[in-house]
Amino acid sequence: MKKGFLGGIFLGVVLFVAFILTLACAVRVPVGYEAIVYSMNGGVQNETLTQGWHVVSPMKQVKEFTIGNEQLILSKDNRKGSEKDESFKVSTSDDASIAISFQMSYRFNPETLTDTYKKFKGMNGNDIVNNRVKAVLKSKVSEVTTDYSMMDIYSGNRSEINNKLTEYLNNAFAEEYGIEVLDASIIDVHPDKKLKTAIDSRVTALQKKQQAKAEQETVKVEAETKLIKAQNEAAIKIAKAKAEAEANKLLSESVTQELIDMKTAEARLKHGWITVKGSGTIVTDTTK
């Protein structure tokens, strides 16, 4: 009896210790993440841990990488995601320097996680983004914005610039950091007072230029309309004159001596100037 009791206690202790060890070895990979497992003896395992609970030896290290869509936001205030003012300045083609707020949607490529982990010597995804990607991001963005003027960035075709940013950063970060950039965009522009004054002056000049161009187009259209109207009127007159000339020509060609004689005879007959006697058509002048 005593022996069985001791055995039960021993089994309970073993199960309790096993439970504690299991808890100590349990690792939860969050949704949207995969994890790399590394041990001092075997190095990096080829297979990654997917989302969910896993039992991993305390002698091994687990590093998480996001494979879901994450956002990196560098804005002027925390209303758009930054904890502080993280806006930064970029260069333009007209040698200006303008502050922007920026956001980037990204994820780590699950097919290259192991290589990424090895390359950065045990850093996890957040470390790579915060310590490596952010360090080069500003210069990378400027490499795109230098192809555009200050006005292009401030009030131009922002969608074109954002498409170029997405493509450029995706190519650069995929090779260097194993990161896929899904979308990169300038979400706001923050010129200082001096730059704002310059921008306002350019906007005013551009508006005047556009207004002048619109007025020139109006004058041009009005002139073309008048010209078309005059051409149409001239064409109508020419056509009318040609028609009258053609009619006169036809009339002239239709008047023969026989017709003249016949009309003369008809007139004299109608007004009593002539008399016709007999079938020999003898015309007698009755006025004498």
Low-pLDDT parts are 275-284
Q: CATH topology of the largest domain, what is it called?
A: Tetrahydropterin Synthase, Chain A
How many E-type strands?
11
The backbone outline, from C-alpha atoms, is elongated
| Structural class determined from secondary elements | alpha+beta
Number of domains: 4
String of helices and strands: HEEEEEEEEHHHHEHHEE
**Main sheet: strands, sense, barrel:** 4 strands, antiparallel
**CATH architecture assignment of the largest domain:** 2-Layer Sandwich
Mean pLDDT: 74
Topology:
Elements: H1 2-25, E1 26-29, E2 33-39, E3 43-44, E4 52-55, E5 60-66, E6 70-74, E7 88-91, E8 97-108, H2 113-119, H3 125-145, H4 150-155, H5 158-177, E9 179-190, H6 193-254, H7 257-271, E10 274-277, E11 282-285
Antiparallel strand pairs: 1-4, 2-3, 2-5, 6-8, 7-8, 8-9, 10-11
Can you give keywords for this protein?
Tetrahydropterin Synthase, Chain A, single chain, 288 residues, elongated, three-stranded antiparallel beta sheet, alpha+beta, 4 domains
Question: Would you give an account of this structure?
Answer:
It is a single chain. With 288 residues, this protein is of the alpha+beta class. The protein folds into 4 domains: 16-66, no CATH class; 70-191, Band 7 domain (Tetrahydropterin Synthase, Chain A); 192-254; 257-288, no CATH class. The protein is built from 7 helices and 11 strands. It has helices spanning 2-25, 113-119, 125-145, 150-155, 158-177, 193-254, 257-271, and strands at 26-29, 33-39, 43-44, 52-55, 60-66, 70-74, 88-91, 97-108, 179-190, 274-277, 282-285. Strands 6, 7, 8 and 9 form a 4-stranded antiparallel sheet that branches. A hairpin with a 4-residue loop joins strand 10 and strand 11. The longest helix is centred in the last third of the chain and has 62 residues, at 193-254. It starts with a helix and ends with a strand. The model is unreliable at 275-284 (pLDDT under 50).
